[in-house]
Amino acid sequence: METLAKEGIRIGLVTSPTNVAYLTGFSCNPHERFLALAVDSETREAKLYVPLLDATAAEEAAQGIPIVPISDSDDAYELLGRHTPGQGASRIGVEKGAVSLAKADRLQAVYGGAGFSDLEQPILNMRLSKSEDEIARIQRAVDIIESVMAHAASQVRIGMTELELAAEIERKMRELGADRPAFETIVLTGPRSALPHGVPGQYPIRRGDFLLIDIGVQVNGYCSDITRTFVVGEASDKQKAIYEAVLAANEAGIAAAAAGVPVSAVDAAARGKIEQAGFGPLFTHRVGHGFGMDVHEQPSMSGVNGTLLAPGMVFTVEPGVYDTVVGGVRIEDDVYIRDDGTAGVLTSYPKTLTVIQPEA
Question: What is the total count of domains within the chain?
């Protein structure tokens, strides 16, 4: 309310399902249907517009917020204009990243051509600092995914394809209580492990190859994200050198994280270790990213981000080296800043080089 009034915004509309869930407790995927939390800064009233088929769930989850159900035959924008009389307002607030041009045209028609102010950053700033309850939920998601990682390592067989192992991983996620994968499961072997965001395919696991597994789950609205890289059979000297460089970078990045430290210093600490080992050009992405309700949130853990780390921030540290001949290594941990300003690590799965000796 205060942000709306300060910026001279009469009506604020939150339409991102994740932000609606954060602000109201009600979570759904509306697909093509209309979903919005509407706040009137003058009357200080809020209404939650939901698809009719989700109305009962919304009433249970978003207690205290009036629900406006929208049937498939209703004109959602006509209802919005009727229930939020913002005609004559000079500005309305929206999350610009979540509103298409088509939706913007409809909203301007409802509100008499009012201009748009962006609400996205203020909401993301609210989500940036996680509460103890949020961190506990993230830890639950981490605990599940680490059990899945251990299961995945035990299931590796020579000749098994990336897709076969990915399918077993996702089956185990559900068995252990995950609501869903937090993102598309990544299982890559051999030279394909050098694809930072590669997609599993019909490629067989072979003796002597790297096996990179990047997985996460969403549980009770919050995500986890972990990567470990294994060697199948026996590690070569080159594989060991790459792995040790990435492990040193991971540990240096975590050691650099503390309240008051700029994000860029975490990236620099990790990148420095990889550069010292001679693999600098093969580390091709930022050192990590924030996460929580979404698997990618603020802060962006890049070398140009001067944002100071603060208590409640949760992020990954995931340096990597990607050699298109030998393959790639990434080691990813989930980290948060404690109330005392020190860094806590939510992940605990072993990081020393693990050589899997699979059956044929």
Answer: 2
104: helix, strand or coil: helix
Is this model's pTM higher than 0.85 or not?
A: yes
| Helices 263-276 + 237-256 axis angle, to 10 | 160
Same structural domain, 248 and 342: yes
Q: 327-354, pLDDT tens digit by residue?
A: 999 999 999 999 999 999 999 999 999 9
Q: Residue 60's domain is classified under what CATH number?
A: 3.40.350.10
Share of the chain above pLDDT 70, in %: 98
- Is residue 251 predicted with pLDDT exceeding 70? yes
Q: What residues contact 163, with CB distance under 8 A and at least 6 apart?
A: 187, 200, 201, 202
E strands in 240-349: 288-290, 297-301, 314-317, 320-323, 327-330, 333-337, 343-345
Q: How far apart are CA 112 and CA 206, in angstroms?
A: 64
Q: Are strands 67-70 and 45-51 parallel, antiparallel or unpaired?
A: parallel
Q: Are residues 272 and 145 in the same domain?
A: yes
Who's near 231: CB < 8 A, 6+ residues apart?
Answer: 208, 209, 210, 211, 239, 243, 353, 354, 355, 356
